[in-house]
Design goal:
The protein is an all-alpha fold. It has 24 helices and no strands. The protein is globular.
């Protein structure tokens, strides 16, 4: 890798991180739409999860379209039009999707609402295919996963704010029983969001983000691999399943939480938003913690930042909810849960495979605790899953595309395709909840984490056989 890539290019990274914010804002807002639509359209728990299905399956459809276009034009689409142009195109497609919320809200059409979400996510699919490997490439490989974790922290600033803003737009001063008014209130925040997509698209076109990241260019030149397809790499194939189950457990844990709190704890829908916000803020807390290595090579400073960063993120959550005039009393005890995250992050020592293993085991423990308890203890346990999901995306993504060289963008597209797990596993858990109970349905998440623990163990041996050792890369970088 060239000397220019030794340090993170912050001038390019910061504007790139803005698109991560949008993904989080919309994804977390879906958790507020689900219970609203369930009441308004008299849906079962399984049917209500069609919101997640429409949103996350669009990622798969988008990836398939990308591959078909690349095949028909006999060349990689992103490499041809450039990374920056691809980002702008993705934002434009998402903006088109938000326009459907206007007629959908006016007519009270559930299928039209789902269509709007589908098109928004279709644009996100292209954005994710570009932005994830780009975030890794804008600096040294040793801190690639930490840089992606940092971008994820920006993503979760959106997930923390999104549910609160959409909940306020839907309920506001209106009664939660007035579902007609609630549905019509959805159109304003999404139209504003569409305008923001277009503004950021223009700003990105004017930014210094490269059309082709230097790291990928160098890997093309230096690669000695004769593999013609990304699917020839076992780390990618197993990683695709990893992304499927990871996004699945992350989304399904949150999307089924409102129904659990309504049915078992008798909490009103309009009062659930702060807890959904806490779940997604937990991902922000974890990602801010996991990103400290991308800021500095000073080990002593890293130790200090590992304690400051998570509580700074927690403070953001408290501040936003204070501004929205929510009662903060139930959330102070969560400061103790964050300590578990900090020590787990320290134990990983920056190795993405080790971090994936440790956090997957903690995710299993959190879900089992939630399933074996009741009341607020179970809510805190389920919410803490957000902490342990926080750094799994960058870990899986980094491990899966390591060593792919010229097949990196193709591999990234395959990984983005598997985001459909967020919809399918959410629906599966909703279906399980209809058959048994929402409490018991969280066993689906336990199985997802079990696979991730297996992948963490298996991929280390696969990469070492290809000459890739993250312990050596990290020690060399610091």
């Amino acid at each position: 890798m060239s000397s220019e890539s030794v340090k993170t290019n912050w001038a390019q990274f910061v504007p790139l991180a803005s698109v991560f914010f949008f993904w989080g804002f919309v994804a977390a807002s879906n958790d507020i739409l689900i219970p609203v639509f369930k009441k308004a359209f008299d849906l079962t728990q399984g049917q209500s999860q069609l919101v997640s299905v429409a949103f996350y399956v669009a990622y798969t459809v988008g990836s398939i379209i990308y591959m078909i276009v690349s095949y028909l034009t006999k060349g990689d689409l992103i490499n041809r039009i450039g990374y920056k142009n691809a980002l702008a195109l993705g934002l434009f497609i998402s903006a088109l999707g938000t326009l459907l919320f206007y007629p959908a809200a006016n007519t009270g059409s559930f299928p039209l609402m789902l269509s709007g979400l589908f098109i928004v996510a279709l644009g996100f699919s292209l954005q994710q295919t570009v932005a994830n490997p780009l975030a890794i490439a804008l600096g040294p490989i040793s801190t690639g996963s930490q840089r992606l974790t940092m971008a994820g922290g920006i993503n979760n600033l959106g997930t923390t704010i999104g549910p609160l803003i959409v909940s306020f737009a839907i309920f506001g001063a209106a009664s939660s029983q007035n579902t007609d008014m609630s549905i019509e209130s959805v159109k304003i925040p999404y139209l504003v969001l569409g305008a923001a997509f277009l503004i950021v698209a223009v700003l990105l076109k004017m930014s210094s983000i490269p059309d082709r990241p230097q790291a990928v260019v160098e890997e093309n030149i230096e690669s000695t691999s004769v593999r013609k397809s990304a699917l020839n790499y076992p780390q990618l194939v197993l990683g695709m399943i990893g992304i499927f189950v990871y996004v699945g457990v992350e989304v399904s844990t949150a999307s089924n939480l409102p129904a659990y709190m309504e049915k078992d704890l008798l909490i009103q829908t309009k009062d659930i938003a702060p807890f959904i916000s806490l779940y997604w803020a937990s991902l922000m807390i974890g990602r801010w913690t996991g990103a400290v290595e991308a800021f500095t090579d000073d080990m002593n400073l890293q130790k200090i930042l590992r304690f400051i960063a998570p509580y700074l993120a927690f403070g953001v959550f408290l501040g936003v909810n204070k501004f929205m005039e929510h009662d903060l009393t139930p959330f102070y005890v969560y400061a103790l849960v964050i300590l578990v995250l900090i020590f787990a992050d320290m134990a990983s020592k920056g190795n993405p495979a080790r971090m994936l293993l440790i956090f997957s085991v903690l995710g299993i423990a959190a879900l089992l605790l939630g399933m074996s308890t009741t009341g607020m203890m179970s809510v805190y346990a389920f919410t803490s899953v957000g902490l342990f999901c926080s750094t799994l995306w960058p870990c899986i993504f980094t491990l899966a595309i390591s060593g792919l060289g010229k097949n990196t963008s193709q591999g990234s597209s395959f990984l983005i395709m598997m985001i459909m797990g967020g919809g399918i596993i959410s629906w599966l858990q909703g279906y399980m909840a209809d058959l048994t109970s929402i409490h018991a349905s969280y066993i689906v998440g336990v199985l997802c984490f079990a696979y991730l623990a297996f992948y963490a163990w298996k991929v280390s041996a696969i990469l070492k056989a290809q000459g890739i050792d993250f312990d050596q890369k990290i020690s060399g970088g610091h």
